[in-house]
Predict the 3D structure of the following.
Amino acid sequence: MLKPSQGRRVIIEFVPSQDLCCSGEAYLGSNEMLVRIPRKVNKADLALTIAHETAHAVLNLNHSEMRGPQYNNVGNWEKLYAWALEFPLERQQSPFKQNLSPEQKLGEAVLKLEEWENKLILAQNKVARYKKRVEHYARKLNEKDEKW
Ligand SMILES: [Zn+2]
């Protein structure tokens, strides 16, 4: 646990994650850390992840020095970090998407449709190119076999 005398200013960069759990990175003895947050975040998991990365950064601890539920999701970690569930921490909607009118939403959907139709055409062109390439090399191989 951090004592007030050990207090330091740290920079935490939060980034979105596709995973189901929080994860993070911090260099030993640094004052910067990265915390990845999934779309549906478990606040206890987030608190544990911040504690884990803070132990690396601020307390200069490595994994062998941080066994147990205080720094890892083992044992009664969920009970230990249950206090975080009460924190008023909620994902905010992007300010850019918040107040879109129905016309703007339609415009956005049209752009996305065009984007994916273009990707579909590109994919179809690639498939056609590789089909020709496969036929070409298969023919070459057959011609070589016939010579023997
Ligand atoms: Zn770690």
Observations:
- Helices lie at 43-57, 77-80, 95-98, 102-147.
